[in-house]
Amino acid sequence: MWTESLSTGADNYVGVIEKGVNARGGIDGHPLQIVLCSDHSNANQATQCAHQAVADPTVLGVIGNSSTCSSQLLPILATAQMASINDDFFCPEDFKSPQDFPFTAGSFDDVEASAIGVKYFKDPNVVVTTIDVPQGHAYPPLVQSVVGPVGGKVVTAVYIPFTAADLAPFAAQIASHQGVLAEGNTVEIGIRLGKALQSQGYNQPVIYNGTVWDPYIIKSNFGNPTNAYFYIYYNEKSPGWSMFLSDMNKYAPGATYQGGDLVSAWLAANVVAQIAKTLPTVSAKAIFSYLSTATNLTTFGLTPPLNFTVPQKALGGLIPRAVNPDVALYHYVNGAVVRVTPFEDFLP
């Protein structure tokens, strides 16, 4: 099951993931079928997605989870010993859950990207914009905790309500401060905010979340700006990236979407398929047990091999399992991205 809060368009490629895995042998010889469950930003609906998952004995796990915070999804998965594999990892309940097996640092990746921006642009000032919800208000202090050690400082935070119709005042508030802009809104709000900033002549560097933004979104909405950057946490020189592109080109020719949320769900499904080959009996409990003791989990080179038996040291051991902490900054150039920094770990 692929659980999500708001669709970014990645879920349009469920068929690509299924066809790619099945062409490589499926799940222990059986065809993969991905069940999509969207909660539409409703915690109760996210809870229902979890009930649906554990009630079906053919569901082996949850992948690419971005479900709404404060749901009971993870506790319900615990009752069935079912894993949440390579999710977006941004809700408070994610951080300590034994059901969660993230491959990357999730919400901490964009925090790290702010630190990369401070160093790369040689600008200590960081402007943060995010949605006006409790999770959003927790974001700027997290950014400060990571940019501080590299000489950075969050100079202002601009919170945008989902209901905001006119984003010009928020854009003006952002434009009144010099510094690297960390874009932490939904894509829909970010597009409207970006157009408002463009109309005001904004030219400071903007770092977009590589999980849900991609070059096509930038080009189709903003043309070819020179101040757009992405952070990316998957190694695009790896065999895994080549596998992903091959599946996309074969099963969705002409498709442009390459957001990190799609890659994450693709990778989770392919890792499950690899694990299934080693198990005498394939079940949700068996997948969960395998991940719980994994010390050298392969992600086809998209990340370093992962050891889920040790905690991440960053942020005071907040993350219960070691994940890939490496992030690189990419510059948007005429419809494509060009890497401008090496992959680095900025988590304290």
CATH class of the largest domain, anyone? Alpha Beta
How far apart lie the N and C ends?
33 Å
What's the number of structural domains? 2
Question: Do you know the CATH topology of the largest domain?
Answer: Rossmann fold
Structural class: alpha/beta
Task: Provide the CATH architecture of the largest domain.
Answer: 3-Layer(aba) Sandwich
Helix content: 25-40%
Largest beta-sheet details: 7 strands, mixed
What does the oligomeric state look like here?
Answer: single chain
Low-confidence stretches: none
In CATH, the homologous superfamily of the largest domain goes by the name: Response regulator
Total beta strands: 12
Could you say which overall geometry the principal axes of the C-alpha atoms support?
globular
| Run of helices and strands | EHEHEHEEHEHHEHEHEHEHHHHEE
Q: Averaging pLDDT over every residue, what do you get?
A: 91
| Radius of gyration over all CA atoms, rounded | 20 Å
Biggest sheet strand order reads 7-6-8-9-10-11-12
Percent of residues in beta strands:
5-15%
Number of helices: 13
